[in-house]
Structures are given as C-alpha cells and as structure tokens.
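Lab notebook, design round three. We kept the backbone fixed and only want residue identities now. Task for the bench partner: fill in a sequence for the structure below.
Input structure tokens:
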C-alpha cells in the first residue's frame, strides 16, 4: 500500500478541532466531487461520517462508494480493522480489505477512524487460550502490544483517530471479558499507553454504547482520570448512538455531551442509527452476541414503513441533530453506522431476518425525509 503522510490532508490551524479539519487544498479537491452533501452542509459545525462494510469494499460497490464520497468526509471500517478480519490467527495478517479502505479514504481526502484496537468480540480464541487453558497476563499483554504496534504503525501516515478500547464497561463496571479476566482493568490502561506509544500524535478514543447512562459516564470518567494521573491521555469518547424511537431522549444525549466536554473530552457520535422495529423484551443494549428467535410480530414492515413510523423516524433524527448543532462546539463528529438501509446490521440484530430502516438513505440509495430535515438545521 502506498504510504501518504496524513499531514498532507490535516490542517494546522489553532482550533480545538484542528485535527479533524482538512486543509484548503483537500477541500478544493472535495468540491469537485460534490458541494451539496451532508459534509458540506455541516462543515462549519462538525464532521459527518459513515461506516463502510466489507462487502462494499470487496465488491467495489461503485454506486455506494460515490454516494459516500459525496455525502461524508469521515469514514470508519465497519469490520475490516477488527481483530478477526485483519489478524485471523496470531501468525496470519490479512491487510487487503483494510488497505482498500485506507486507499479509498486517501483518494477522497477523508478523515479515517481506525476501529477497533482492543475489543472482546470478533477476536480469535488463540489470543486468550492455548489448548483450552487461559494464557498468562504477561503473554496476553505481549500479544496486545504486538497487535497495536503493527496495526497503528502500518496506518499511522493515514489514520489519525483510533477507537482504542471498545465496549469495556457493562452495568457500570468492567465487563468480564477475557481481557479483564486475565489482566484486570490494567488492560484498559495498557491499551491506551501502547496506542499512544505507537503514534504519539493520534487522537485516541474510548468507544461504547449506552453512554447516555449517568452511572456509566461516571465510571468511565473515573477510569480516564486514573489514566491521566499516570500520564496517559484519552482524547475523546465515542458515544455509540444506537437509538430507538423511544430513546434515549434528546435531553439524555445532550446531558452526556455536556458532561464529557466538561471533563475535557472531545465527543464523537460514532455509530448512529435508529431502530424503528418493535423491541425484544425491552432490550436496549448493543452487545453483538445477543440473538433472539425470529417472530413475525417483530418484523412488521417488510413492505415499507407506514407513514406514521416514517414521520417518527424523521422527528427523532431531527431532535437528535438539533442537539448536535446546539453543541457543535463540543461535538467533533457525527457518524452513522452504515449509509443505506439494506447494509445495516440492524436487519440481523438482535433478531436475524428482519427488515429495518435505521439510516438516512433507503434501499434505493435515495435520501429520506430525515435527511432533508437535518440539512435544514444547518441553514
């Protein structure tokens, strides 16, 4: 993969969000793509991003890639930088699709977010076990160091933002993952320290869902303060906003943004989508391993959304973006988790085989009413 220094595309202006701003030369090239996309509309507020799927990259879905280039200035690889994709075994690295992601981002002058260096899911068992028995703490830390060093070093000239640790908190305490069981909460500290060592100039994020929960916020902020006392800096928090029609409320989201900002963290809305289907047993998390049995009553809109649900979809997106615009001095980025409804993970989670409508573009790649509504907020 051709290495291009990311500073070619990043501005050196004095704004607190300078690392997220492309320079004038890149902006001039961007205008040749399209002036009317979401990124252009919100350029004076915050960055607008999306996640790109493996299928889009592997099959070179040119129609979708053109849409992404027109609408967004920030991209995240949905899966292709996760451990099981980029390193399916400890001695086997598969860089091909991640390289495609980076090359696309460079070609289109986009800010790229690396997702995710340390997570408990989508990771080979060999990281944690040998012959069915847990590896030692020191061995697992060496594996983590090797992994973070290799991935960050390969892409440090292109990727300036990393989701370093993903979803480490559950029920307002450390999630009992294999990382935690063998290393304890020290793994959280080590991950950020190793990422900082690998790229001292990178913007390092903790990313999680349910960040509207005040108790979860407090737990995270205490952990970050402890890191700071040891000279380890966390730059931002990623609020996965996997929302539903009934929550979290705009006020809850606003309170979280303000709280994190007061703690000195830049706020990223990292995985935004809006589930319009009936809930399953009031489940509201985003744990990827959750899987409920299919029931037709949970999949009522196979032929399209009724007008009243489409209206609620628009209203919810609008009220949430109103918060982002109001607090654009605190929000660095808003990224949806996918671009068109057909590619959303919400079609298969937490119930496989459903038809969902969580994003801003429909299955025909056309913008929805919610898209037009949020654009009006920037006027």
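Proposed sequence:
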């Amino acid at each position: 993969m051709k290495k291009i220094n990311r500073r070619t595309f990043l501005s050196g202006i004095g704004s607190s969000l300078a690392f997220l701003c492309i320079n004038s030369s890149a902006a001039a090239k961007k205008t040749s793509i399209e002036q009317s996309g979401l990124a252009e509309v919100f350029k004076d507020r915050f960055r607008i991003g999306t996640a790109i799927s493996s299928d889009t990259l592997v099959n070179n879905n040119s129609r979708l890639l053109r849409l992404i280039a027109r609408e967004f200035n920030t991209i995240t690889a949905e899966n292709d930088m996760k451990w099981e994709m980029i390193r399916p075994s400890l001695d086997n690295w598969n860089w091909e699709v991640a390289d495609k992601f980076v090359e696309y981002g460079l070609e289109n002058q986009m800010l790229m977010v690396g997702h995710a260096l340390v997570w408990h899911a989508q990771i080979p068992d060999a990281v944690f076990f040998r012959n069915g028995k847990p590896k030692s703490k020191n061995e697992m830390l060496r594996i983590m160091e090797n992994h973070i060093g290799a991935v960050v070093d390969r892409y440090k000239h292109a990727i300036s933002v990393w989701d370093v640790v993903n979803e480490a908190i559950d029920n307002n305490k450390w999630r009992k993952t294999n990382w935690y069981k063998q290393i304890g909460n020290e793994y959280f500290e080590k991950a950020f320290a190793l990422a900082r060592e690998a790229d001292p100039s990178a913007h390092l994020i903790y990313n999680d869902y349910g960040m509207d929960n005040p108790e979860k916020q407090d737990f995270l902020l205490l952990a970050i303060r402890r890191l700071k006392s040891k000279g380890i800096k966390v730059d931002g928090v990623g609020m996965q906003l996997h929302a539903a029609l009934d929550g979290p409320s705009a006020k809850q989201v606003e309170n979280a943004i303000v709280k994190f900002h007061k703690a000195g963290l830049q706020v990223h809305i990292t995985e935004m989508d809006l589930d319009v289907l009936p809930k399953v047993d009031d489940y509201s998390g985003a744990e990827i391993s959750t899987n409920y049995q299919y029931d037709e009553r949970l999949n009522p809109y196979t032929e399209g959304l009724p007008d009243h649900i489409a209206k609620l979809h628009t209203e919810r997106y609008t009220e949430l973006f109103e918060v982002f615009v109001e607090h654009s001095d605190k929000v660095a980025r808003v990224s949806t988790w996918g671009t068109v409804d057909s590619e959303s993970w919400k079609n298969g989670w937490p119930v496989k085989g459903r038809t969902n409508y969580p994003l801003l573009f429909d299955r025909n790649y056309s913008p929805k009413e919610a898209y037009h509504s949020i654009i009006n907020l920037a006027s």
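Keep this in mind before ordering anything: The longest strand covers residues 266-275.
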